[in-house]
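ARCHIVE RECORD
Type: protein–small molecule complex
Small molecule: adenosine-5'-diphosphate
Source of inputs: curated submission
Record status: active
Notes field left blank by submitter.
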Amino acid sequence: MDSLKVGVLCGGRSSERAVSLRSGRAVAQGLKRAGFRVRRIDPKNPRQTRTLLRQIDLAFIALHGHGGEDGSIQKRLSALEIPYTGSGERGSRLAFHKVEAKKIFDRLKIPTPEWTVVNRKNWKRLAGFPAPFFVKPVADGSSIGVFLVEDFKRSAVKIIHALSCYGELLVERQIKGREFTVGILGRKTLPVIELRPKRSFYDYRSKYTRGMTDYLVPAPIPEAWRRRFQQLAGRVHRALGLRDLSRVDLVTDSKGRPYVLEANTIPGFTELSLLPKAAGEAGISFEGLCRRLVEMAWLREKRNGKA
Ligand SMILES: Nc1ncnc2c1ncn2[C@@H]1O[C@H](COP(=O)(O)OP(=O)(O)O)[C@@H](O)[C@H]1O
Ligand SMILES: [Mg+2]
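STRUCTURE (tokenized, with ligand):
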């Protein structure tokens, strides 16, 4: 397996391009340290991508957001019969589309904050939705386009602007309490991390500016909470049909009841990102983590009789 030529897909055209380039750089270094031959590929350039994809044995997807996390690159790689890390096309699509995922959570009674969807025609009905609430693009990440509304009337202009950008918005009741994230790697559920952003919520700046958020690894919580959160993350991972890795974001209310916000199928992958942090706490180094993801993808391919 060590002689495999791995293409690290990173960059792309999504709003999370900058983060993805950082993830891709770290993954490429990790894989090199693990002994693989590595090539970084940026799908922003379609012609170059086509040529480069033909030269690799396996793709490590370090793309975030549209074009990477939404199932489209997975579909393309499957068609080219190139094995790739992480979730398949369907799971990726479901997890990335927050509304599709919330429908599944509701159906399976996985606790998630009360929600609705509005568009340019019916947004005024938000006057009747219990504030404070969060407004989010139905499919995006890194907290891009996410904002908190305390008062509907005062935020109307902001909502109209967001609708003009996205067409449709997911609206979710704010859960006031603490915030956690739980990573899954293969059959293992990783230690719970608590996030304590210094701003009002875990927005883009809190995510990517050093010192703007305190991370507590492992989270200082009772054993029973830890077990409940990890079980919940496992249920989410299975409910969405995810594979190999994911990171489930959740918030708790004042009584410690957890509510799932979303599952990330390609979470941040810099050495400082949350899933690598949780893996580190579980004794798995960054290069060990990169190696395992390649192994899982390669073994799947072998089981399917293709490699
Ligand atoms: N219903 C909610 N209650 C409390 N905080 C929320 C809620 N929805 C979102 N947030 C805050 O906004 C952040 C981003 O929301 P999330 O749904 O995870 O979107 P993204 O895909 O952009 O990460 C969360 O990490 C959390 O800090
Ligand atoms: Mg999130």
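CURATOR ANNOTATION: The chain has three domains: 5-86+286-303, 94-111+175-281, 115-173.
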